[in-house]
Amino acid sequence: MRADRFLSNSAWSGLIALTMTPVLFSAGPKVERSLFPVVDHVEIHSETLTEDGVSFFVSFDKVRGCEFLGVAWYSGAVRVGVEFEPGANLYPRTRPEGDQYAGPWLVRDVTTLEGTRAVAMHRCHPLWETNTTFYEG
């Protein structure tokens, strides 16, 4: 007897959906960040050592219109603080698509950006947070 006699089309569809859901949620974010980054062509400008860390300006191309959630900066495996325009009462906001120039940013508790990396976190759709590694020094 054939298997399709035991399961209806809707049962097969449900079984396939149950099987593919974990694949989608594990592979989806990896594929998205590789093929569809939110920011690209990042350049650091005017890097200056301060008593609190390293201050600099940054230029980048925002290639997708996603909601900005934040930036995580790492020195090796340790997450360090990053401030946008220190001393100003401004919060990072979602920027429009296109060329951007921002700063100064301050990465705290480092003496150089060498050996650091930064990940931008965005909400592009309701399925998952989209993370883009946009700087590796």
In short:
With 137 residues, this protein is α+β, with helices and mostly antiparallel strands.
Give an account of the 3D structure.
The chain has 137 residues and is an alpha+beta fold. Helices cover 20% and strands 45% of the residues. The strands form two sheets. Strands 1-2-6-5 form a four-stranded antiparallel beta sheet, with no helix packed on it. A four-stranded antiparallel beta sheet has the order 4-3-7-8. The chain is elongated and about 75 Å long. The mean pLDDT is 84.
Descriptive tags:
four-stranded antiparallel beta sheet, 1 helix, 137 residues, alpha+beta, 20% helix
The strand count comes to 8
Largest sheet: 4 strands, antiparallel
Radius of gyration: 21 Å
Total DSSP helices:
1
Strand content: over 45%
Low-confidence stretches: none
Strand order of the biggest β-sheet: 1-2-6-5
Secondary-structure element order, as H and E?
Answer: HEEEEEEEE
- Global geometry: elongated
Distance between the termini: 62 Å
**Helical proportion?**
10-25%
Q: What number is the mean pLDDT?
A: 84
Structural class: alpha+beta
Q: What is the fold's blueprint, element by element?
A:
Layout: H1 9-35, E1 39-49, E2 53-62, E3 67-75, E4 78-80, E5 82-84, E6 98-108, E7 116-123, E8 130-136
Antiparallel strand pairs: 1-2, 2-6, 3-4, 3-7, 5-6, 7-8
